[in-house]
Amino acid sequence: MDNDGLPTTLESWLARLEAAHPVGIDLGLERVACVAQRLGLTERPIARRVVTVAGTNGKGSTVAMLEALGRAHGLSTATYTSPHLVRYNERLRLDASEASDEVLIEGFVAVEQARLAPSPVSLTYFEVGTLAALWTIARRQPDLAVLEVGLGGRLDAVNVVDPDVAVVTTIAQDHAAFLGNDIAIIGREKAGIMRAGRPAVLGSRDLPSSVADHARSLGAPIFALGEAFDHGDQGDGSWRGRDAQGQPVGLDQLSDPGLPLDNAASALQALWLAQGDLDPDACRLALAEVRLPGRMQWRGNWCLDVGHNPHAANYLAGRLAERREEQGKAQGRTLCLIGMLEDKDAEGVISALSSVVDAWLPVTLEGDRGRSAADLAARIEHQGGTILHRSDSVDDGADWLESCVEPADRVLVTGSFFTVAAILARWSRQSSGGGVIEGAT
Predict the structure, then answer these.
(1) Cα dihedral sign for 388, 390, 396, 398?
(2) How confident is residue 180, by pLDDT bands cut at 50, 70 and 90?
(3) pTM, rounded to two decimals
(4) Do the beta carbons of residue 79 and residue 92 sit within 8 Å?
(5) How many other β-carbons are positioned within 10 Å of the β-carbon of residue 235?
(6) What is the spatial distance between Cα 98 and Cα 90, in angstroms, rounded to a whole number?
(7) Torsions phi, psi of 313, nearest 5?
(8) Mean pLDDT of all residues in 250-256
(9) Are strands 334-338 and 359-362 parallel, antiparallel or unpaired?
(10) Contact 415/272 with Cβ under 8 angstroms?
(11) Which of 40, 110, 400, 406 is the most exposed place for a label (fewest CB within 10 A)?
């Protein structure tokens, strides 16, 4: 602790926030907006251009590609995402580098001081982190800030900032306890990041009509995938879109980013609207080099993917099937180490992956929201799946697999950010900080 009684290390700050603000999710902007005003975040834009990204799946890859595209065009950038996989520092990136402990702590101190005076305001762990990140970004005034909405949209803490361009990636059922099961209502909540008269990029062909309806009610120009913009067929490398005046624009011979092409197309459209003309060579370089840990990330014959709902699992299954077909040779089994949280649709995820998984290894995730291996195993067996083994932790499951996996087999690790994070931390320990973990391929 320093002289003001505040922590002096990032670890102690995070522990303090978890203890002081135990409520993980408390949707609403009144408290956050109050502290944001005290911090001066409502006085002027936090960056020259701000793009906010909401959706059920695809936010992370869209943000990563926007950052890479911005950097390739010589822009100074800042991105805020959540949750992190291994280190909290991953949430805030400044010019493509994770924020240092010192930068994060400075933000936490600023938020704490603003939170307390002139009268205390209660904030959750996520809200403090979000405001600290926004304060840090605002002090730097980068050319481009890309903000990922944590949950929902309209009432998410990120939404205290007015974006120049709003992107909605996909809409599916997730976080039902907070957002409900009505897709139209979920879509309306996600669309809450839109602003009157400012472009709205709709990055899925299957969005509920409530998303576009809300954009029209605001007079926000709509740029919809499959209408205003689109990518070419798989491997085609082309993109066609519209500029801010609605005139057709396009790019050819683009690199395959190894991430969803719908999200790549959305990122290109959003940046064209935010920045103006894009340079084809810069776009090719950015898409060739972009990497996103935990999304179709391969290391040898192990694949990590944080997919934790049926929509994400369906996409993952399709990519794995394509990869097997492209390799065009006999392979061994696909073994799935899966760990999930209690509030996720385990049956839907298992069903989506069943066509590409030969055998399963369910593991227990710790914590109040953690689901047991026994619970997962019962759901897998109910759908006719084969259980290889079950483990009390991700590490124990990985130990077991490493001892018995055949060279021709491949291992899929999925079901939760927590599951993937445990394997990434394991690999980091094994390499003693000196190894290189491959990115998405």
Answers:
(1) positive
(2) low
(3) 0.90
(4) yes
(5) 7
(6) 5
(7) -65, -35
(8) 95
(9) parallel
(10) no
(11) 406
